[in-house]
Structure formats: structure tokens, C-alpha cells
Specification:
- The structure holds two protein chains of two kinds.
- By secondary structure, chain A is an alpha/beta fold.
- In chain A, helix 3 crosses helix 4 (about 125-135), helix 4 crosses helix 6 (about 155-170) and helix 6 packs parallel to helix 7 (about 185-205).
- In chain A, about 40% of the residues lie in helices and about 20% in strands.
- Chain A has eleven helices and ten strands.
- Chain B is an all-alpha fold.
- In chain B, helix 5 (about 125-135) packs across helix 6 (about 140-170) and helix 7 (about 170-180) packs across helix 8.
- Classes of the chains: A alpha/beta, B mainly alpha.
Chain lengths: ~290, ~280
């Protein structure tokens, strides 16, 4: 099968004394139209993967190895101008926190139409018409009034819908969603997930869905990568991952997830021994890494 | 409109706005407001007493050593103070903001150069700068304006740079990057509007500072001798403080009220526009 996004053996190092490894050889693939989950605890490196793809990795982090291919092109070390051409048009992003991701002093209209006018070359009137369509697609009521509003006049769920509308505005091939529901209420979470699923099935956009919630993965994704300590520990189709998790850590992660279908069952935290063993593995990996400073 | 009413409910902003309005009136309508020509001498009527000390109503605040009407001179002085401080604050703000935006947003070498420049600039004694400037350009209002701009642009530059650094780390800027906006557009369209409230505050405070600097420079004679200035009136009145103390006290009071007003306006705006403090 052809792949849309192919990340191979990606290594990212935070320069400092001592340098710290953020990604220790991450490989993953996203096929066109597929929803791929990237799960892991905080600090596993999920967000860093997305940031490298988007070209917004921290200034003091450096890609020291591996590659990122998008649609057949190497975008690992793409220059800024070429990346701008890609971002928003081919690769779009749904951020984690809708409360802060919109410019607080700008009305909603320009925040949606910017991306349309820049990438699709629409004029003001057409961009506005398309923005209304988009707001309708994300099921926001009274889109005309909404366009004139400021972000603080909208609820968190509404803002996330606006951000989703912006992400899908240019019909991108890939949408990267970084924990898009974490900052929302549980009821709103469910609606937003349903919306993402719906838009995805209409547009055929591939989604790289970053989350720490295995429940969301089970409901939404086709394929899953489990990350820990900057490594991908296991990659499998969703059904297989939950039916027969291969890696010890995946089993521990599943056991640590609350299940509504088995009330009363005790949650088992991830064993300390396992975490220590994974950390030791990482250390061994790091010490064999060239370019490491004493 | 509603927001304006909200702002004016704050006592400090109301007071500051009142002072600013009075200054503006004096500046715009000086020739009609002042009862006499501020330069008209009447040597037979020198040191006329102000109204409260038994003077006549032709000269409400009395006259100076050359018989010029003090009230008229103060009103025309307000005009100079306002124009000079406004233009100076505007130019200093423009220069400082541009450099601060560039330093904060582009970082790296641009930031290093601008930041070092600011540090060197600030370690240079400002009085010396003024004297050098006066020697180069000669005395006059333009010298005063240029002196204030050259001394005070650093104030804007430092604060704007710091604010841009804060704004740059906000999520909305990352969002703007991920939809492919150009850096220059992000800076002007996304970040700058978020810095404007701060600029408004800084500008108002700077006007207060500029009024004082203008008075000082006029006092030492670096400003124009052809128009009445508050600093100049104080300087002339100083000689006759034993006979006519009001000649010195009145312009001092003008300066104090004007500066207090601008500072109150600036502080009030800062409180009102700071989202953390306001809530």
C-alpha cells in the first residue's frame, strides 16, 4: 500500500548539557485516508513527532537522523518557504487547547479566511462564502453571526469546531490532531470526535491522531502506534492491538485504562519495574548513539 | 462606545482623560482661549498682581517682568508641551516598537544587535546626549523632540521586545505557523494587535515623561526662545521669586498636573487593559 506520511527512524535531540533525546528512532506510517493513533503517556514524544512534521520543533532541538517523507517527498529538512506552501494546504493541524489557539483580538472571519485566501487564492467574498460552508460543515449554528465574533465570545467546544473547520478548509491530505479533545468536557469530547470522524469519512483525509486515551483510539482509529520514551514500542491494527497486545508495555497501558463495560474492576498502574526496564533500554540505546557528548 | 464609558468609570482614567482633554483644548484653541498675545510686552504694567492678590481682571494671573500676561503664556506653553511631547512620544514609540518587534520576533542575531544597542544606549548619560545634540543642531523645539526620541526609544524597545517574546510562545502564533502564514504577516497581523494595549499605556506614560524633559530642556535654554514654554517661564520667574512667586509657581503647577494626569491615564489604562489584572 502506498503511504502518505512515512517517518523512518526519526531521531530528535535537545541540545544542551547533557543533550537529551526526545525521539530515539521513531518509525511510523500513515496511509491515505487512514486514521492512525499515536498513544503514550505524557513525555512519550507524541507531540514532538507532530512538531517535527509541522516544522515547529523547539529551536534548540535538532533532527539528528532518520527522515520524514510526505506524499513521496522528503520534508525532513525542508526550508521554511517550501514548508509554508505545504502547511495549511496539504498538512493541517488541530491543536490541543482551543482556548488559546485562536488569536484573542481578531474576529473569527479572518482567522478562517486567511488560510483560504492564501492557499486557494480566493477573494474576500468567495472566502467568506466558503467559510460559511465550513462552519455549517462543523455544525455551528448561525455562521453569519459567528464570523463577526471574537474568540472569547465562543465556548471551548465551539472554538474547537472553528479550529477543525480551519484544519479541513483546504481539503488537506493529512490532518495532525494533537489531543484535540483533552481540554474539553467529556460530553463535548464525544461530539468533537464524532465530527472529526464524519469530516474524515467525507473528505478521505488521513489523520494522525495523538492521544493518551486508549478508549478514543479504540473508537476512532484504524491503526495504532504505542510510544514510550521517544520510541515506538508497538504498531498494530486497532483490533489486533486490543485483542492480543504484543508488547508488555501495551498490555500494562490497557490494564491501566478504566473500562465502563467492567465496572468495579481495579485499575492496575503501570509497574515500576517495567518503567525502569524501559528507561534502561533507552539508556543503552543512547550510549550507542554517535555524536553523543561526554 | 460602551467600552469607552467603562474605561471612563475608572477614576484615574477619568482624571487623566480630563487633563489630556484640557491640554488638547489649550493646544488647539490657544489663540482664542488666551486673553492676550503671550508675547505682547507692556512695560508700564510689569509684575501686575494676580486677581486673588488684588490685581485686575485684565490679567487673571498677573504679568511678568516685561508685562506679558502669565495666563496667556501658560496656555501657549501648554500648546508647546503637548505638541512636543506627542510628537516625541510618537516618534520614540515608532522607532522603539519597530526595533522591539524585530528583536523579539526574529531573535538570534537581530535580537543580539538590538539588545546590545539598547544596553549601550542606556549606559550613556542622557544629559550629555542632549548637550551634544544642542551643540550639533542648535537650540529649538526640533532639538527638544529629537533629544527625547533619541533618549527614550529604548524604553519602548525593551518592553515591546519582552511582550513579543511572551506573545510568540502563545498557541495562536503556533496555529498561525501551522496554516502557513509568512513570518512578517504573523508579526504584523497576529502579534502586533496583541501588543497594542501595551503600546497605548507606554505612549501615555512616555508623554508624561516627555513633558518633564521638555520643561527641563526649556529651563536650561535648549528650546526655542520665540514661543513661551513652561520651562522657560519657570526660568524667567526664578529671578523674581521674591517679588512675584506665582510667576514660577504657576508653570510648575501646570507641569505637575499635566504629568500626574498623563501618568494616571497610563496607569489606569495599564490596569484596565491587562487581562490578568482586570479579572
Amino acid at each position: 500500500m502506498s503511504t502518505l506520511l512515512q517517518i523512518s527512524d526519526l531521531r530528535l535531540r535537545l541540545e544542551g548539557r547533557p543533550p537529551a533525546w526526545l525521539l530515539r528512532g521513531v518509525s511510523l506510517e500513515v496511509a491515505p485516508g487512514q486514521i492512525v493513533g499515536l498513544v503514550g503517556e505524557s513525555g512519550a514524544g507524541k507531540t514532538m513527532v507532530s512538531r517535527v512534521v509541522l516544522g515547529i520543533a523547539p529551536a534548540n532541538a535538532r533532527v539528528t537522523g532518520g527522515s520524514v517523507f510526505f506524499d513521496g517527498h522528503d520534508i525532513t529538512h525542508l526550508n521554511e518557504a517550501a514548508r509554508r506552501h505545504l502547511l495549511g494546504r496539504e498538512i493541517a493541524f488541530i491543536p490541543q487547547n482551543p482556548m488559546t489557539a485562536l488569536n484573542p483580538v481578531e474576529r473569527i472571519e479572518p482567522q478562517i479566511t486567511d488560510v483560504l485566501r492564501m492557499h486557494l487564492g480566493l477573494d474576500r467574498v468567495r472566502a467568506r462564502a466558503r467559510a460559511l460552508e465550513l462552519l455549517h460543515d462543523v455544525h455551528l449554528r448561525e455562521p453569519e453571526r459567528l464570523l463577526r465574533r471574537y474568540p472569547h465570545e465562543l465556548s471551548g467546544g465551539m472554538r474547537q469546531r472553528v479550529l477543525i473547520a480551519i484544519a479541513f478548509a483546504c481539503r488537506p491530505k493529512l490532518v495532525i490532531a494533537d489531543e484535540p479533545t483533552t481540554a474539553l468536557d467529556v460530553t463535548v469530547q464525544k461530539q468533537v470526535l464524532r465530527l472529526i470522524r464524519e469530516l474524515q469519512s467525507h473528505s478521505g483525509t488521513a489523520i494522525l491522531f495523538i492521544t493518551h486515551d486508549l478508549g478514543v483510539v479504540a473508537r476512532l482509529c484504524d491503526h495504532v502506534h504505542v510510544m514510550h520514551g521517544g520510541r515506538v514500542l508497538e504498531s498494530a491494527p486497532v483490533a489486533q492491538l486490543f485483542a492480543s497486545p504484543a508488547h508488555e508495555y501495551t498490555r500494562a497501558l490497557i490494564a491501566a485504562t478504566p473500562r465502563f463495560d467492567r465496572p468495579g474492576e481495579l485499575l492496575r498502574p503501570i509497574p515500576v519495574a517495567l518503567t525502569l526496564r524501559l528507561a534502561e533500554d533507552a539508556r543503552v540505546l543512547d550510549s550507542s548513539e554517535p555524536g553523543k557528548r561526554g | 462606545m460602551n467600552a469607552l464609558v467603562q474605561l471612563l468609570r475608572r477614576p484615574r482614567i477619568a482624571f487623566g482623560a480630563l487633563v489630556a482633554l484640557a491640554l488638547l483644548m489649550a493646544a488647539l484653541a490657544a489663540p482664542w482661549l488666551s486673553p492676550h498675545d503671550p508675547l505682547d510686552q507692556d512695560l508700564f504694567n510689569a509684575f501686575a498682581k494676580p486677581l486673588w492678590a488684588g490685581g485686575d481682571s485684565a490679567h487673571l494671573l498677573g504679568t511678568d517682568s516685561l508685562g506679558r500676561d502669565l495666563l496667556s503664556r501658560l496656555i501657549h506653553g501648554a500648546r508647546v508641551a503637548l505638541v512636543v511631547s506627542f510628537v516625541a512620544a510618537l516618534l520614540a514609540g515608532l522607532l522603539g516598537t519597530l526595533l522591539g518587534l524585530a528583536a523579539g520576533y526574529y531573535g538570534g542575531k537581530v535580537d543580539s544587535v538590538v539588545s546590545r544597542l539598547v544596553e549601550i544606549w542606556m549606559s550613556f548619560p542622557s544629559v550629555l546626549l542632549c548637550i551634544v545634540l544642542a551643540a550639533l543642531l542648535g537650540a529649538g523645539l526640533h532639538t527638544v523632540v529629537i533629544a527625547i526620541v533619541i533618549i527614550d526609544w529604548t524604553r519602548f524597545c525593551r518592553v515591546v521586545r519582552a511582550e513579543v517574546l511572551v506573545q510568540k510562545s502563545q498557541d495562536y502564533v503556533a496555529s498561525a505557523v501551522t496554516i502557513g502564514l509568512r513570518p512578517a504577516r504573523i508579526l504584523w497581523q497576529e502579534i502586533l494587535p496583541n501588543v497594542v494595549p501595551l503600546l497605548l499605556t507606554l505612549f501615555t506614560l512616555e508623554m508624561g515623561i516627555a513633558i518633564v524633559v521638555e520643561a527641563i530642556l526649556s529651563f536650561v535654554g535648549l528650546s526655542s526662545a520665540n514661543v513661551p514654554t513652561w520651562g522657560g517661564i519657570i526660568q524667567e520667574g526664578r529671578l523674581y521669586v521674591n517679588q512675584a512667586w506665582w510667576l514660577m509657581a504657576a508653570p510648575m503647577l501646570c507641569i505637575i498636573v499635566a504629568v500626574l494626569g498623563m501618568n494616571a491615564l497610563g496607569d489606569g489604562l495599564r490596569d484596565a487593559l491587562d487581562p490578568v489584572k482586570a479579572r
